[in-house]
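It is worth pausing here to work through a concrete case rather than discussing structure prediction in the abstract. The textbook approach is simple: state the sequence, then state the predicted structure, then interpret. We follow exactly that order.
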Amino acid sequence: MTFLPDLPTLLAFTLAAFVLTITPGPDMTLFLGRTLSEGRAAGFAAMLGAASGIVVHTSLAAFGISALIAASPRAFFALKIVGAGYLVYLAVQAIRGGSTFKLDGKPAGRRHSLTSNWLTGLGINLLNPKIVLFFVTFLPQFVSARDADVTGKLFFLGMFFIALAVPMSVAMILAADRFAAALKRRPKVMRAIDWLFASVFSAFAVRILLTQGR
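Step two, the predicted structure:
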């Protein structure tokens, strides 16, 4: 199977992917926030949406489209504006809708459908230019431009990244779900978490706007 990288390359990629997965980002903020506010099913749906976005990014990187976006100042600027605006929208929704639990354990804020959570996860992943740059600059480090099956190797590494990230994300969602159960009778704490997630989304929006295309 020529699309498989050699063992040293695979081990190096595994280590790098592990570090990147546990580093907080908009995706993690989203699915943990939805888990705390709406339960593990909502968190899983948002996580799968983000994973679907990675499939798209992998496909674009393999065919060079992401590289063209990152190389075009206008296209990259437009992507930054849309991505940052989407994160600000999510921050506003966290404050307006809220995730505070009532004393009877029912969420006070508006609940989202699983499809809506999946689409939000997909959108926040696709509209993050930092992820575009990640797949443009990170994945190619583990393949050779002279490799006859460079496209196949890029696809394999992208899918392997998902296979590594999903179990760790599942563990975080399950932990957050248990944490949420302990907070059902502490609405003030949950309201503080709403503001925390809104602040984190806003901070990521600023970071996205400051991302350089080259």
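Step three, interpretation. The first helix runs from residue 7 to 22. The mean pLDDT is 79.
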